[in-house]
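User: My collaborator sent over this chain with a note saying "see what the structure looks like." That's all I know about it. Can you take a look?
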Amino acid sequence: MRYQKIFRENKGVFVPFVTLGDPSYEMSFEIIKTLIDAGVDALELGFAFSDPIADGPTIQKSHLRALQNPINMRANFALLEKVRAYNARIPIGLLLYANLVHRFGIENFYHACAQSGVDSVLVADVPMCESDAYVHSAHKHCIAPVFIASPNARPPTLEHIARSSTAYIYVLARTGVTGTHASISPQTHNLINDLKTLTQTPCLLGFGISKSEHAQQALQMGAGGVIVGSAVVNLIETHLENPTHMLARLGAFVQDMQVGLCYN
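Assistant: Without extra context I'll predict from the sequence alone. Here is the result:
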């Protein structure tokens, strides 16, 4: 599995998030190529949705920008195929909402993921108690299910998450929605320790991670790396009128995060 390789070879991994189609499918591909060429370890990609309840204002706006274009599921998968053709080695994870999966059909969705070269899927708004159909179809199509572990999760829920997440566990650096923040919740260290008693599946820290110092803190807490969404998407939004500068800034941001993950 591609994820196993990156966790085996790197002390800490850096995974950026972007929404497909923001600001267009063509520019999305250029953004993703830039991130890959700059040296990210894996990708987390979102499908635009009208009600992204787990996301804060920055990523919500990326969904809205994408939805101004002719967005549809088949075009999303076509772009994923282009990304996989561009790089055969990088793990590709999806983070999306259940309504999109249901409308496409759970079996159709995971089949399309497999055909497009996707490695993992996190359906953000599906609780563990309703996840069986997703997990079953994911395994059938050799896609790794990923679940979110929050600081306020009860022990039985953490045990279920540990059993069901096979690529990595998405650990929340704090409760709430996505967005850039100044610090990581002190509860996170205990949460990672609890998960490590239950599973060897690596933990990736997300929600509020925005700078190299956060990446270093995440490793010190025992995480296998970080997922960064709002800070990446904010660079896209800030430089919409100057795509060349946008891509340069994204490349520089990746290099800065790599420093925090002790790559240099």
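A starting point for your reply to your collaborator: Confidence is low (pLDDT under 50) at residues 176-182.
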